[in-house]
Amino acid sequence: MSMYMNGRYFKITHPPRSFFVEGNPVVFKTKYKLPIKSLKVNFEPVQDLHGYEKPWPAGGGKNLFDVSQIPSFSLSTGGEIVNNGDGSITITTPSGSGGIYCRKTLAELAPGLVAGETYTLSLDSTGSSKYIYLIPANEGWTVGAGAKTVTQAMLDSGVYFYASGVSTTATISNIQIEKGSTATTWAPYSNVCPITGWTGANVTHSGADVSDSTTTHFSWTSDAGTVYGGYLEWLRDGTVKLTADRVKKTLTSFTGAFEATPNGYAVYAYIPNGSRTKTIRKIRMCNMFFDSTLSYTSMPLYSYMGGSGANTTWTFILPSTVTTLQEANAWLAALSEPIEFTYALATPQTYTLTPQEALTLLQGTNTIWSDTNGNLEVTYESYTNEQ
């Protein structure tokens, strides 16, 4: 734009306007090459749900069968099940029957199974009958006979074990139900869904007038240690700041009040002191948990989340044998996998990273994305409102 004054033309330059876009990737247009004002990369903790679509499924490891839930008992007809506590059971079939009902449904013993999915059964036995039978679904599942697509009727059915006929004894071990059609080496049951976080990020920028992309890698392992959630800010002058607002904690002990619930399970609600505020994003994870649609009484070691904001708690459901705080801490110390969870810091921690060069936007279309899968927030200037 120009203006005629006193016999001369004067050029008037308007200052650039600020624009804001978000997403991952973000795509926008600029008319001239200008340094970016700011770029914010959000990243959140990542949890391995082992292929399940619904959040917080029960059963996190390869082996979805929890043999520890099979009770020990004797029948008046001579049948007996003894849970040996080492991942095996010893059964004696009753008179008049080649099988014995373990007093648990398939859903209770393998809470991670999902109707419609395909699974494979494997087990070792000193007896000749290597299979289980499900009643009332009337479905047999024989080792080595191929995979099965699990139905809801199967999940709701009781599980029967077999030895070598009527009134015979066998020790059954290495019981494993795993997803897929191939039996693999036995692994102990685990309800762990590991939580991992970010210690680096790749931010990639490309434009219409260049043939390749430029990737800048940010690493904060040496600067800030392991961070499980937060955001990275890249400012116009090349200053880079890391803000950690979600971190992972290992539960090393229970403290405070301890309460036994009417259903026989001892429940302790652990709240990290000052760790949550109502303004923090609702990013809360635990590596051991259960599907809240299932019954509490069918659960072994799991936890659930309740409340909101500052009142949010993780409640851990412990074995019914745990009735005191001392027993709870002894049980906690004996776990093969520690209980871990993420929580939001009441006061986020900020770190200054190694300065980077200012990111210059290109004339034409600009595309910026990050491998953290978190949302990007870009503030830039342009002499046009074309975006």
The count of strands amounts to: 31
Average pLDDT number: 76
Report the sheet with the most strands, covering strand number, pairing sense and barrel closure: 7 strands, antiparallel
- The largest sheet has its strands arranged as 3-31-6-21-22-28-25
Task: Please state the structural category.
Answer: mainly beta
| Assembly level | single chain
Give the strand content: 35-45%
What is the number of helical segments per DSSP (H or I, 4+ residues)? 4
- Counting structural domains, the number is 2
Structure description:
5% of the residues lie in helices and 42% in strands. It is built from four helices and 31 strands. The longest helix has 9 residues, at 325-333. The two termini are 22 Å apart.
Keywords:
mainly beta; 387 residues; 7-stranded antiparallel beta sheet
Short description:
The chain has 387 residues and is mostly beta strands. Helix content is 5%, strand content 42%.
